[in-house]
Amino acid sequence: MKKIFCLVSFAVGFTALALTGALAQSPPDFSIQLLSVFDYPGAGNQTRPQKISDAGDVVGILVDPSGASRGFVMFNNGNFSMPLVDPNDTGNITEGRGINNSRLVCGDYLDATSGTFHGFFFSNNTFTNYDVPNSTTTIVLGLNNVGDFAGSATPTGGIQEAFLNIGGTVTEFAVTDATATLAYQLNANNQSCGYYIDSSGVTTHGSIRWARRVRSCSAIPSSGSQMTADTT
């Protein structure tokens, strides 16, 4: 009985010390504040921000009263870019999806003739289009500060998969039995997050992919055609 009593007493004492230490190290109180709200200028526009850079620039999508989707950037000083319209957009859909600290923007546009989406990068008033090799659809959804990027693509005759482009090397992956897998963003360690649609074709779930190797080099394609931005 004494041994049992001693062990219990020790456990209670240890718990008390642990609780005391935890209380002593409790983080200070903090609050979350809504700093501001904003809309892209113009009557009737819908504003859908997508990502924010470390520098505070915001990229997103505006939907105008006609239903056309355009990309936009809200700079950290509060000014807005002109609407971003990829020159190959024939379906009235150009979407700004990601932005990094150098203000390189990524996104996608609709080719109405084929009914497929294709990726783009935008910088210095120039569009560079991008497609994952051997795919019918490419959506570039996010990029990091060294230019590696993530998104989703549909292989020819296949099911929509997620992809990462790290240093120019494309890796495609999919969750088992998913009807679609999308990588929405990646960080400096090339870890990505996104979501997938399960076998029901309706329900979505989160996913994270941990990188096995870390590489830091520019992955922006150099072979893409460059075009002056149409900002009308």
Helix-strand string = HEEEEEEEEEEEEEEE
Count of helical stretches: 1
Based on DSSP secondary structure assignment, what is the total number of beta strands?
15
Structural class: mainly beta
User: What quaternary form is this?
Assistant: single chain
- The radius of gyration computed from the alpha-carbon positions, rounded to a whole number of angstroms, is 23 Å
Shape: globular
Tell me the strand order in the biggest sheet. 4-5-6-7-15
Binned strand content: 35-45%
Low-confidence stretches: 1-23, 213-220, 222-232
Let me know the average pLDDT.
84
Percent of residues in helices comes to: under 10%
How is the biggest beta sheet arranged? 5 strands, antiparallel
Distance between the termini: 86 Å
Please provide a written account of the structure:
The chain has 232 residues and is mostly beta strands. The chain is 10% helix and 41% strand. It has one helix spanning 2-24; strands at residues 46-52, 58-63, 69-74, 94-99, 105-111, 116-123, 126-130, 135-143, 149-155, 161-166, 169-173, 180-186, 192-197, 204-209, 226-228. The strands form four sheets. It has a five-stranded antiparallel β-sheet with strand order 4-5-6-7-15, with no helix packed on it. β5 and β6 (116-123) form a beta hairpin. 34% of the residues are buried.
Give the SSE map.
Elements lengths: L1 H23 L21 E7 L5 E6 L5 E6 L19 E6 L5 E7 L4 E8 L2 E5 L4 E9 L5 E7 L5 E6 L2 E5 L6 E7 L5 E6 L6 E6 L16 E3 L4
Antiparallel strand pairs: 1-2, 2-3, 4-5, 5-6, 6-7, 7-15, 8-9, 9-10, 10-11, 12-13, 13-14
